[in-house]
């Protein structure tokens, strides 16, 4: 197989596995071992896989508009080959048009779709002709929701959910934001290191690193990192990978040394470990989860970060009567639809559905009803999600407050790193297209 085809060939094989139900990252990891690719080709394959999965609706619309049959009627393998071709033409400036066409036609031949290689050639060349004439080859319908969904590649129901919360222009910007490659943020372990020490070590290692303007101990790595475990300070527990917006949650909890904190849905421990760090590792932090393999990750992270106050508790947090009235603060970082981290999980927008959201809302409500009984009379509970769906956030909290008039929202103190993100209702929402971080929702509740 010619070298220049290998990246596309790998991408194609991974896409075929995804069509059989595999998760994108798992399928990539499994297939990559069979190819000895140079780093640059590995990067191209990764971009092609995640890019075509993200942009699938847009690419399907092009197939339908430029072909004789709709995308759904095309043979599955031909459809994936066309996705790869159109993706390179539309989104990859570094791939010359002729290379995109030639490699896609060759890919069809390698897959024994030789008879259809003329179709591939014709459709891709038609795209190039229309583009050269100054037109966007992608035609959009008049309906505003469908138009945004096709242009940015989202199911209509996600666009509609965001329209409930944002102006049309913001919805468009948010859709586009999630189509970019994710960045990696670190949280510096203040008990083992400092921002300056970690920045110096990473810069010496050849990385570009920026401190976050609003969030103490948060750093952003600019560009590719390579294997994260091989970066300086990892083994020493100087830092943890955690998006800046996720770091805000523990600031909202605001744990104090000596207190008892329960983290009801704690694995893999990003926030459990942050809570212990903020308490100077003094007190008791119970990190709970119902999945034992995930609970182990809390132990591993606590060990690496050299934190001693964390105890793990295995089980369903809807049924933990032993926690009744023992907590100064509870964190409920619930399982959610993840609409705030769509850039990190290319296929997530196609896996979630309105039905799956409804199931999650029931679980979230049950967890909240159970966890309020753990809070001491003057204690607080923080509810958080990495989603941007109103049913899992604003509506869920409003429904809870209507059912529990003895609870109210406590906005963060003015000096809190969370304060800049607080809305007039007292909860905080991080909008990625405005704040350039993962999407998050968080609110602190207390008894009146
Ligand atoms: C959003 S993740 C938590 C992320 C974590 N707080 C962090 O910052 O690393 C939600 C977690 O809830 C756990 N979970 C789901 N249902 C649960 C339940 N009924 N009781 C306890 N944990 C649950 C999942 O296993 C998952 O690890």
UniProtKB/TrEMBL annotation:
Active site: 386
EC number: 2.1.1.176
UniProt keywords, alphabetically: Cytoplasm, Methyltransferase, RNA-binding, rRNA processing, S-adenosyl-L-methionine, Transferase
Pfam families documented for this protein: Methyltr_RsmB-F (PF01189), NusB (PF01029), RsmF-B_ferredox (PF22458)
InterPro entries named among the record's database cross-references: MeTrfase_RsmB-F_NOP2_cat, MeTrfase_RsmB-F_NOP2_dom, NusB-like_sf, NusB_RsmB_TIM44, RCMT, rRNA_ssu_MeTfrase_B, RsmB-like_ferredoxin, SAM-dependent_MTases_sf
Taxonomic superkingdom: Bacteria
Gene Ontology terms for molecular function: methyltransferase activity
Enzyme class: transferase
Catalytic activity of the protein: cytidine(967) in 16S rRNA + S-adenosyl-L-methionine = 5-methylcytidine(967) in 16S rRNA + S-adenosyl-L-homocysteine + H(+)
Annotated positions binding S-adenosyl-L-methionine: 289, 316, 333
Localization (cell): Cytoplasm
GO biological process: methylation
Sequence similarity: Belongs to the class I-like SAM-binding methyltransferase superfamily. RsmB/NOP family.
Annotated protein name in UniProt: 16S rRNA (cytosine(967)-C(5))-methyltransferase
